[in-house]
Structures are given as C-alpha cells and as structure tokens.
Specification:
- This protein is of the alpha+beta class.
- It is built from 16 helices and 19 strands.
- The chain has a 7-stranded mixed sheet, sandwiched between helices.
- The longest helix has 37 residues, at 264-300.
- The termini are far apart.
Length: 490
C-alpha cells in the first residue's frame, strides 16, 4: 500500500480549499460563531477543521470512504488484518473488544486484576463476569507485574468455559508480559487473547522496543496513540487478526459505544501519525531510545534517586521493559513520589506522567530533546537536594493478601443495585459498590462487587492523607464509601 497517502488529512485539506459551507452541525460554523476569547486560546484553525459527515469525512455516516482507507493503511502499517479508529480513547476500544469476545457469554472473561479502570467499566456496562488473573506482586518494591504465562494457564484450568482472556501490556510502568507465550496458551483452547496495549502504540516501529502484540499472536490489541504516539487525546486504534474474533461483531460493538459525531481532527491526526511512523518511525524512535538511555544514566546518578530496570525484569518479574518509561524510585530520600511530583510541578513547571508512594515516572517520547531531558535531570537534582522527607505523611502499605479481595457479586450488580454510604471506618467486610482507584495509574484497588478488608481501606485512607488522588470515589476524601445495601448482599 502507498503509505505516503493520508486519505483523512487530504480530504480535510480539500474541504478547506473548497471553501464549503454547511447548514449542519457544528453550530460554530468553522469558528465564525465562536467567542473571540475562546479563539484567542484555542485558535481559529481548530474550529475550521472541526467538520462532520456533511463534509464527507466520516464514511460511517457518508459514502466518502476516507476513514475506511485510512484504517486499512493503519492495519497494513502494523501487520494487523483490520484496524478501527476511535475518537473516544482506548477506554471505548477495550470495552468494544470485551463485548465482542464475551458479551452474552455466561463463562465470563479472564481478566488481569491489574487492569485499568476502563476495563472495570466495561465489566459494569456489559455484565460480563470477571475471572480474575492475579498479577505477580513484588513485595520488596511494592509493585505489581503483569501475569505470567503460568498464571494464565492456571486461570484457564479454573475457568475453562471463559470466552477469552484480557491482559494489560505494557503496564503504566512500562513493564511487559510474555504475550507470545500467553497467546499460545489461549490458542491451545481455541480462545482469543485481548491485549490492552494502550501504552504501546509505538511498539511496531522499532525492533529495540518490546514485542508488538500483533507480532506476538494476540487476536485484538488496543493502543492509545496520544500516549506514546503523536495523536490527539482520545485518539485510539484497535487492531484485529485471526479468526477467533468476528470483525463484524467487533465493529458493531464499537458502533454501539462510539459517538455519531466523531471529531475529524482526531481521525486526521491518527492518519498523519501512521504516515510519519512508516516513513521515519525507526529513526525517530531509535534517537529517542538513545536519548532515554542517556537520561536514565544521568537520573540514576542523582543522590537518592534510583532508576529501575534490572529490578523490573526476570522470571518472577516482567518479561520486557519499554525503556522510554523512566521509572525512578525516590524512597531513599525519605520522601514519597507524590512529594516529588508536587515539587516539580510547583517549582519547575514540570508535570510527571505518574507518581505513587515511592516512585515518579517520566514518560519520554520521540518528541523530547536534549533540552527537555536536561530540564528533567536538573529539576530532579534540585528536588533531591532540597528534600529530607521530614514533611511526608506515612502510607500504610498492604500486603499481597490484603490486595486480593474476594469477589462476591458481579460488578454490574453491585454498581447498579441498592447502595448505602457508610463511614470508611465501618466499611471492612462490606461489598463495595464503586471503584476506588488511585489515579494515575488508574488501576482500581477495589472493584464493585468485591468485599473490602481493613488492609485495603487503611492503604487508601493513609494514601489520600499522604497525597494520593482517588478521583472516581463519590467521596474523594474517602471519609465515606459506597457499599451494597445490607438487604441486597448475596
């Protein structure tokens, strides 16, 4: 295929050159009706490019064909059989994949328990029964690793009627599962593997990066191009191959969730990024990896900062690592990752991709330069020199047993059933009716339908007091928790 072509970008350019005018949404009429104060911040060009199906740019609604061609080019670029664009992020894409594989199936879906909150939301929407795969837990570093092939095999032995399996790789920390081995285990049973590869859009385009899920044999994988690519926020692609997932069913499930008014800017950016990666991705990512190696060495030399790498890999750890994700353990300073992230934001105007009770994560991309890396190293050096950890509040860290909550109800039933609000000190033993999710990285500590225990509650309460953000709880201060009403408990 001719990857110099960009059907969506070209159609958008043609639309603007034609000076078309539509008596259709959007009502701002290419920015003419937008408030000048808004235009001053966003720019008129963004509104001028915000066109809908009336311009022939979305062939889900018209006969233009531009979107279908762009999706075919994307699939060809990464070696998938089909690709689907989403303007609602990978949160939509992964839900569509879950519904296509397990919707209406009583056997449920094998799901890694370190999954993002969007996957739990898919369980709530669809009513699919989760058959949890327990991730590997590193007690020394208080870090979960993706499930091993052996854990997936055990999960299949316990739940042979499950419709398929879903794992997350790379994790938000950049750690990766052995997707090839896990895919083979699933395929031995004739069952599909879904990979939430939201952090892996760049993986197909350089051999020094971890293995791309399609190359490793996954049946469906979901990528967020805005995370590690060059797309707009909400730009997502899900890819499919093989005969274990019906492409028409997958497309239909996506249509159930997709907006009927997609933003063409998001589509066009996906189109342009694919061309960029095919033409220049190897060189751009190679330079980024070299820069990341230098950054990792310099940051590891900062007093009190340890850049994690070897600790993350091994038989009892992760299979591979995306080294563009620079994970720094700052616990030797006596401070928490939350403290470091707050200081960098306030004193150096630098935002860190993720922080937790002992780490900060700097996500590098091919767009970074020596100057931006210099700013990061200088800022981390300055922070380490100014902190003694004395102002930090301790967090009560749970053990692996505390984190493995018992599932006693379907997530959908617990979320939509009768609930009551109780004091957090009285919530141990109750069935939680809401997600309780430290964010980032957005992995729920408690999922609707699980029975809360004191260890998890102590962790969450002390975490919020120490700087943790739990935004999806009804009471984000965690003084109270929503639980299933007594008379509705099973």
């Amino acid at each position: 295929m001719d990857h110099a072509r960009t059907p969506l970008l070209t159609a958008l350019a043609d639309y603007r050159r034609a000076n078309r005018y539509g008596f259709t949404p959007p009502g701002h009429r290419q920015g003419r009706g937008a408030d000048e104060r808004v235009l001053h911040v966003i720019g008129r060009d963004a509104f001028a490019a915000d066109v809908l199906a009336a311009g022939g740019l979305d062939d889900r609604l018209t006969r233009g064909g531009h979107l279908a061609e762009a999706e075919a080019l994307m699939a060809d670029a990464v070696g998938a059989e089909t690709a689907f664009f989403s303007t609602c992020g990978s949160s939509l894409s992964v839900k569509a994949a879950m519904m296509a594989v397990a919707g209406g199936d009583d056997g449920g879906l094998l799901v890694a328990r370190d999954s993002h909150k969007s996957i739990v939301a898919g369980l709530i929407f669809s009513g699919v029964r989760p058959r949890w795969i327990t991730p590997r837990w590193d007690e020394k570093h208080h870090l979960s690793h993706p499930p091993s092939p052996e854990q997936v095999r055990r999960a299949w032995a316990e739940h042979p009627d499950a419709a398929g399996a879903l794992i997350v790789s790379p994790s938000p920390y950049g750690t990766c599962a052995d997707i090839g081995a896990i895919a083979r285990i699933c395929h031995e049973r004739g069952k599909p593997l879904i990979v939430d590869e939201a952090w892996g859009a760049h993986l197909p385009f350089h051999p020094a990066l971890p293995t791309w899920a399609m190359d490793a044999g996954a049946d469906v994988c979901v990528v967020s191009v805005h995370k590690m690519g060059a797309g707009f926020e909400q730009g997502s692609v899900f890819h499919r191959q093989g005969d274990l997932v019906d492409p028409d069913r997958l497309s239909a499930c996506a249509d159930l969730l997709m907006t009927t008014s997609p933003n063409v800017l998001i589509y066009a950016a996906l189109d342009g990024w694919r061309r960029q990666m095919v033409e220049r991705g190897h060189d751009l990512l190679g330079a980024a990896l070299d820069r990341a190696d230098r950054a990792r060495a310099r940051l590891d030399a900062v007093d009190g900062v340890r850049v994690l790498e070897d600790e993350l890999l091994g038989v009892e750890a992760s299979h591979d690592l995306d080294r563009l994700q620079v994970l720094m353990d700052v616990s030797d300073t006596g401070a928490k990752g939350y403290d470091a992230a707050d200081w960098l934001r306030e004193h150096r105007r630098l935002d860190i991709g993720m922080s937790d009770h002992r780490r900060v994560l700097a996500t590098l991309s091919f767009a970074d330069t020596d100057r931006t890396v210099d700013a990061l190293v200088e800022a981390m050096t300055a922070w380490a020199a100014t902190t003694d950890g004395s102002a930090t509040e301790p967090i009560v860290l749970p053990g692996p047993g505390d984190l493995q909550l018992e599932t006693v109800m379907l997530p959908r039933d617990a979320f939509f059933g009768p609930v009551e609000t109780v004091d957090v000190r009285e919530a141990a033993g109750r069935i939680v009716a809401e997600q309780l999710t430290p964010y980032p990285p957005g992995i729920p500590v408690a999922v609707p339908g699980e029975r809360l225990d004191a260890g998890v509650l102590d962790y969450l309460v002390s975490g919020v007091e120490g700087g943790m953000n739990v935004p999806d709880a009804a009471d984000s201060a965690l003084r109270t928790v929503r639980v299933v009403a007594r008379d509705a408990e099973q």
